[in-house]
Specification:
This protein has a 21-stranded antiparallel β-sheet that branches. Strand 2 (112-116) and strand 3 form a beta hairpin. The protein has helices at residues 3-17, 33-37, 55-63, 66-74, 80-91, 98-103, 131-146, 194-198, 210-218, 266-269, 302-308, 310-318, 323-326, 378-388, 432-440, 451-457, 468-476, 488-500; strands at 45-49, 112-116, 122-127, 150-156, 159-165, 174-179, 182-187, 225-229, 243-250, 253-261, 288-294, 335-341, 364-371, 394-401, 404-411, 414-415, 418-422, 425-430, 462-467, 504-514, 517-526. It is elongated and about 90 Å long. It is α+β, with helices and mostly antiparallel strands and 536 residues long. Helix content is 30%, strand content 26%. It is built from 18 helices and 21 strands.
């Protein structure tokens, strides 16, 4: 198996096996210090779990979600609890229970870890409370899953490797060694290397890795799982030297934060430095379920325009249109854009995703605006842009709306993105009614009923909010024509899905530059299950 694929599977296994917790007040930099001492900094990838003590509470919290129950039913289980029961039966230990962990010889209050090595072998690190109980559990698992129920000990210097083999003298299928209060557990070829890792020098341990320590300093303190790709890991791509991600599980949200030191052009990183700007959110319509905001320096977008929209970049070059000097240099930070579900959306079948034949604005309406430094420059810039529109297969016609210039765009599939200028603002959107609404707007709308969603947009240089509750409401309000002829069955199924997932509130994402690193955060906001009433 190739290393990236093996890495993904291995880390997924760790996440399922040991969901951590920080309820006890410990962070990965504190509680994880013990396990980091026995994890090698030379690994391809490392995972650290600060504590396994309240795993049951985390799992039970997830089991209480409606979306978890719905997922369980899709997998043939009546509820999420029974689905989780089936999963832990496969593991051999009920990791939701402190008592079950102790019965298996695992220290629930300890930290745990995992290392994937360059030779594609791996080992798990488990905190030990009772070695005899742990050995019995491992032997039972080895016999049931690997056909290796015979226990043998092998001495390697001062290290004893406890091996489980199909028959005396056979190759080990599972094994472990004790070191500093932990058990290093491996399978097959990894068993032969456990003694070497048990002798790991402190200087070669993850606890002495300055890159890892610096990343933890930049990442949020609330973390239940840490995954680290050290410098030189083959899983790394692009202009970053390492990567660290944390997972935090809370009743109100699941949060993933990733951090990667930037090794590319420092000027490119400046794009993700948050700049002060005007609050333009109030111009967006109340029905926008997806909102994005860019608070970085627009002048830094030049290279990205060329990479992301090569056809547009070629048109600019052929027309000698200086997009950086004439457009980006005149923009202020704080541009916003939103998508709203179109009443003409057809949910009765799969759409044709070819933009040459299908207009995306029949499915979603676009509304957006930005503020400019010099409003007098805008009309000339829009005129030049209209002149090169045929080069990208469209037409732009200039008209007037109450004294404001408006440029309507059309192409073979219908309406394109229209533009308008009013004072210090440049509006863009589609269909035409969205532009008319922007020109009439006083900028006092409230697209989000929950203040925390607006706070997300203001927190980083590039942010995105998907309001799942608002999207679900928009789907419910679609006219019957949206479901097509005989689409009542599709509508009923869709509404059932929406009912079963209505504890998913929002998905938010943010990107920023932080101390020379690129940092991204993805949050799934949840509606915590209602607390059971207390007995009188």
């Amino acid at each position: 198996m190739r290393t990236p694929a093996r890495l993904g599977l291995a880390l997924a296994a760790v996440a399922l096996t040991f969901a951590g917790c920080s309820k006890c007040g410990k962070t990965a930099g504190q509680a994880g210090a013990g396990v980091e001492r026995v994890l090698p900094r030379s690994a391809v990838a490392v995972a650290v779990i600060p504590s396994v003590q309240v795993l049951g509470e985390r799992l039970k919290g997830l089991e209480s979600l409606k979306v978890a129950a719905f997922s369980a039913q899709l997998n043939g289980f009546p509820d999420a609890h029974q689905w989780a029961d089936a999963l832990v039966q496969q593991l051999g230990i009920d990791v939701r229970s402190k008592e079950a962990l102790e019965k298996a010889g695992v220290d629930p209050s300890g930290s745990a870890g995992f290392a994937l090595l360059a030779d594609e072998s791996a080992f798990l690190v488990v905190p030990v409370k009772d070695e005899a109980k742990l050995a019995a559990v491992l032997q039972k698992l080895a016999a049931a899953r690997l056909g290796a129920g015979v226990a043998e000990d092998q001495q390697d210097g001062e290290v004893t490797v406890h091996r489980f083999v199909p028959a005396p003298g056979a190759q080990a299928r599972l094994g472990y060694v004790r070191v500093d209060g932990f058990a290093l557990v491996g399978t097959d070829a990894a068993v032969a290397n456990l003694a070497r890792w048990a002798k790991l020098l402190e200087a070669d341990a993850l606890s002495k890795d300055p890159t890892y320590a610096a990343a933890l300093g930049r990442l949020p303190k609330e973390r239940d799982l840490v995954v680290y790709l050290p410098p030189g890991s083959p899983a790394l791509q692009g202009t970053v030297s390492s990567a660290t991600a944390t997972l935090a599980l809370r009743p109100e949200a699941i949060t993933v934060t990733a951090d990667a030191p930037w090794t590319g052009d420092p000027k490119a990183l400046e794009l993700l430095v948050k700049q002060p700007g005007s609050d333009l959110l109030g111009y967006l319509p109340d029905d926008a379920w997806l909102v994005a905001k860019f608070s970085g320096d627009p002048a830094g977008l030049g290279p990205w325009v060329e990479r992301l929209v090569p056809q547009l970049s070629r048109a600019f070059s052929e027309a000698a249109f200086d997009v950086k000097g004439e457009v980006l240099a005149n923009l202020k930070p704080g541009a916003v854009a939103g998508l709203s579900l179109a009443p003409t959306a057809k949910l009765g079948g799969m759409p044709d995703l070819d933009l040459r034949s299908t207009n995306p604005f029949a499915w979603a309406h676009l509304t957006g605006l930005t503020e400019v430094k010099d409003p007098q420059q805008v009309p000339g810039t829009l005129d030049k842009f209209a002149g090169l529109a045929p080069r990208i297969g469209s037409q732009m016609a200039k008209t007037d709306r109450d004294g404001h210039p408006v440029y309507f765009t059309t192409y073979s599939a219908g309406e394109g993105v229209h533009f308008a200028a009013k004072g210090p603002h440049v509006f863009f959107g589609s269909p035409a009614g969205r532009i008319d609404a922007l020109l009439k707007s006083e900028g006092k709308a409230t697209p989000f009923s929950r203040p925390q969603l607006k706070g997300v947009l203001d927190a980083r240089a590039l942010t995105l909010v998907i309001d799942l509750q608002k999207l679900a409401h928009a789907v419910r309000e679609l006219p019957s024509a949206a479901w097509g002829i005989g689409g009542f069955a599709i509508k009923a199924t869709t509404l059932r899905w929406l009912d079963a997932t209505d504890d998913l509130e929002a998905i938010t994402a943010g990107f920023e530059s932080k101390a020379g690193a690129v940092q991204a955060q993805l949050v799934l906001s949840l509606t915590p299950p209602a607390a059971a009433p207390k007995a009188p």
